[in-house]
Amino acid sequence: MSSYLISNVSVVGAAPTDVLIRDGVVAAVGAGLDAPEATVVDGTGLVALPGLVDLHTHLREPGREDAETVESGSRAAALGGYTAVCAMANTSPVADTAGVVEQVWRLGREAGLVDVQPVGAVTVGLAGEHLAELGAMADSAARVRIFSDDGHCVADPRLMRRALEYVKAFDGIIAQHAEEPRLTEGAQMHEGEVSTRLGLTGWPAVAEEAIIARDVLLAEHVGSRLHVCHVSTAGSVEVLRQAKARGVRVTAEVTPHHLLLTDSRAETYDPVYKVNPPLRTAADVAALRAALVEGVIDIVATDHAPHAVEDKECEWAYARPGMLGLETALSIALDVLGPQWDLIAERMSRTPARIAGLEGHGLDPAPGVPANLTLVDPAARRTIEPAELASRSRNTPYARMTLPGRIVATFLRGEPTVLDGKALK
Length: 425
Prior knowledge:
Layout: E1 3-11, E2 16-22, E3 25-30, E4 39-42, E5 47-50, E6 52-57, H1 70-79, E7 82-87, H2 98-111, E8 115-118, H3 134-139, E9 146-147, H4 157-168, E10 173-176, E11 189-190, H5 193-198, E12 202-203, H6 205-222, E13 225-228, H7 234-245, E14 250-254, H8 256-260, H9 282-294, E15 299-300, H10 309-312, H11 329-337, H12 341-356, E16 373-383, E17 402-412, E18 415-419, E19 422-423
Parallel strand pairs: 1-4, 1-5, 6-7, 7-8, 9-10, 10-13, 11-12, 13-14, 14-15
Antiparallel strand pairs: 1-2, 2-3, 5-16, 16-17, 17-18, 18-19
């Protein structure tokens, strides 16, 4: 295997040092390292972070390869500084059997750009009626540990309880898309002042908060692990805070777009801003940011949701909800949090890797650990041009926005997948 010497780099914001990578692991960290056989990567002005980990990625394959493939999504992830992503189950066919999750897992291995960990469906066909083959998926080559009907809520409380009980046997996680469907029928955006003015059917905050409140009680009763996808309201934060204070085994994520954008974007009627859950108010954004810093919200997850042109460039009411996120997530985190490198590493690498049980990921560069890391130029600023993104889709809400930070390099087990900001595959 190749050897690389990253010189004069700041490891998670510390004083500049050298990092030697050899045989897939970090061989040494220290000033003045000498390795004549190694390829030198100049790390001056750069920050080395543990490779980012995303618990919520839609790769669309199998079924919607026109929007994204495992390979194209993996390339986007690597360019965003990720070394591992969890691929959601709402593919076609749905990832509700061992065969489908193994297919996604193998496609990820063939692409070789990031570790692709499939997420299994909770219910057959995401229909919310019968449990999927949770045990078979857990025992498959993909070793699925996270299960989610994301895009659909497991609305039946009895079924949700059974799912929580089932996965407890192998320390699995149910990741809930918190949306009471009877409160969101026909909803087009956040229910509030803007929706009233625009005449669009509203998606009330309580539709999310009620399901989270129910599910933390179920998880507490069962003693199982619950993960809440894309938290979007201040009320949800309070429910989570109280649950964590009681010791409930619940974790939660927030997306970059819910940390930055508000429902006022819908005033343009540009469908790129249509997402589920919807963009909320400025007060919600402030509460989410504070909760992320506090740790009530555990991680940043992209909810990277590519869509083909015909599914987005249409009338608002007919547009599919979702936004791209993998290639811009770290920049949004920098914009929102500033250069709090340890906090960014915790929320975007260490904690998501720990939640998902991804061995070898989420570890700071140190002697003996797998060399899964990313190099960031915090001084760089870049203007987002949709046509330059690696994703097959173009539905980024950050088009032509200038954002801080640039991924210079990404290493997966010691081999670069990105160098000088360019994907190597």
